[in-house]
Amino acid sequence: MLFPELIEGKSTAVDFQAGFVSSDGGAVLIGRLDRSLGHVRRFCQCFTDYRDPDLIEHSLEELIRQRVYGLALGYEDLNDHEALKSDPLLATVCGKEDPLGKNRLRAADQGKALAGKSTLNRLELTPKEADAKARYKKIVGDEESLEDFFIKEYVRSLRKRTRQIILDLDATDDPLHGHQEGRHFHGYYRNYCYLPLYIFDGHWPILAQLRTSDREAAHGASQAVAKIVDAIRKKLPRVKIILRADSGFCRDELMSWCEANQVHYLFGIARNAVLERELAPTLELARQQAEGSETKSARLFHTFDYKAKKWPGEKRRVIGKAEWTAQGRNPRFIITDLPGEGRRLYEKVYCARGEMENRIKEQQLDLFADRTSTGSLRANQLRLWLSTLAYLLIHRLRQIGLKGTELARASCGSIRLKLLKIGALIKVSVRRVLVSLSSSYPRGHLFEAIAGRLRLKGSG
Q1: Rounded Cα distance, 52 and 59, in Å
Q2: How many domains would you assign to the chain?
Q3: pTM of the full predicted structure?
Q4: Is residue 392 part of a domain?
Q5: Which residues pair with 433 in a beta bridge?
Q6: Is residue 102 part of a domain?
């Protein structure tokens, strides 16, 4: 094909003779990181594979790598893997001994080293009662083990000198556009959705529990927190643990559990007439200060004890923020058993929980955690866990490989765009796979430095 008009005096020729070219040259970093840390290998231990070993062309670990790496690289749908199964770079990263697919058994599969959408779909749709007698779906994931996997990986990462841990809890809507199992209309979000529960420590995902939306945000939180705290204390028995969440988790059950198990809490608490009446004098003082200031705003704090009628036991400590701005009054309240000055607890500790919302957005927008479009709740939960594992890999890349670099605080989407989506020419020989990146890639030195940091060091 000729495009003579592009440069005056020169014709531009275009052909399809470049050989194997991939748009995901940075995938080698994900593969190297995962081999070093062993996350996918341990994730696969949560499955039982009933397939006949003599008939397997795609091992369980290869299937999970393909699906998880695909999410990390921006391929949200199983349909994308119909094209990806011919990509020798992804095949190499997934550990395929024959990345060109020359030795596939069926003639129709030759040249396609990786699994197609149907094989991956069977992995997701396998029911928990499947066994070796099942016709197609024979890889069974144990749901309890899969949930525990993320807790164990988090605890494994904790250093012995850790003195304090803050666990952020939040629930969010996962909109549904079909008739999935457990579909319910949520009045607050005004749509049909799931209501997954997330627990993070900073950027680290500890829990991603898919729930139906016919329940409140705090449903099951006490049980989930108990499991996580028990795992943490087996390794760090004296560590200080703080739960932090918005008013959706301000429930007597959860706070009473914390008080009985030496876990601190810092929750938002919804406004009501009693709280506002207690804060009224301080709010009036804030109004007076605002009217006399140049900014027309003032913020004061008032600490007092409070007990809702339906709570048994003693009163709890509430910190009220009495804020007056140019737009008027803006009272807010938090409840806590932590000691310390109210302003610091509100502004420095509680408000920092807003970062968790960014982590959820990253997972939903960049790692496609909201692609819960298959029919069963079990299969959609597995999709959420696969997305969470992809997020964990990107987080570990950010934590280990990007520390101190220009991308140290970049979002998952930015890391993918700037570091993973690199054009690469692939040449496969008997002894090696050569991945040639563009000479004009502007972050070549950064790429080399990251690769050095991700050197294989076992699965610790």
Answers
A1: 11
A2: 2
A3: 0.94
A4: no
A5: 428
A6: yes
Q: Burial code of 153-187, b = ≥16 C-beta within 10 A, e = fewer?
A: bbbeebeeeeeebbbbbbbbbbebeeebebbeebe
How far, in Å, CA of 94 to CA of 101, rounded?
A: 13
* Six-digit token string for 144: 């309890």
Range of the domain at 129: 20-141+429-453
Query: Do 136 and 29 fall into the same domain?
Result: yes
Residue 341 sits in a domain of what CATH number? 3.30.1300
> If you search the block for the tokens 């009662």, which residue do you land on?
129
CA gap 333, 303 in Å, rounded: 10
Residue ending a domain, among 291, 311, 346, is 346
Burial zone of 238 (CB within 10 Å; 0-12 exposed, 13-18 middle, 19+ buried): exposed
Q: Are strands 164-171 and 174-175 parallel, antiparallel or unpaired?
A: unpaired
Residue 300, beta-bridge partner list: 322
- Tell me the residue ranges of DSSP E strands in 210-330: 240-245, 264-268, 298-306, 316-325, 328-329
* Mean pLDDT of each 10-residue bin along the chain, 460 residues long: 69 82 94 95 98 94 98 96 95 95 92 95 95 94 98 97 97 95 94 97 97 95 98 97 97 96 97 96 95 88 95 94 93 97 96 93 95 95 98 96 93 96 93 91 92 65
* Neighbouring C-beta atoms of residue 279, cutoff 10 Å: 25
Contacts within 8 Å (CB) and 24+ apart, 399-407: 399/203, 400/33, 400/453, 400/454, 401/29, 401/33, 401/450, 401/453, 401/454, 402/450, 403/453, 405/446, 405/449, 405/450, 406/446, 407/446
Residue in this structure with the two tokens 């020359």, named with its chain if needed: 102
Residues 202, 181: Cα–Cα separation, whole Å: 32
Q: Are residues 342 and 433 in the same domain?
A: no
Tokens encoding 134: 């099942």
Q: Is residue 50 part of a domain?
A: yes
Contacts of residue 64, Cβ cutoff 8 Å, sequence gap at least 6: 40, 43, 44, 47, 123, 386
Domain end: 325, 346, 367, which one?
A: 346
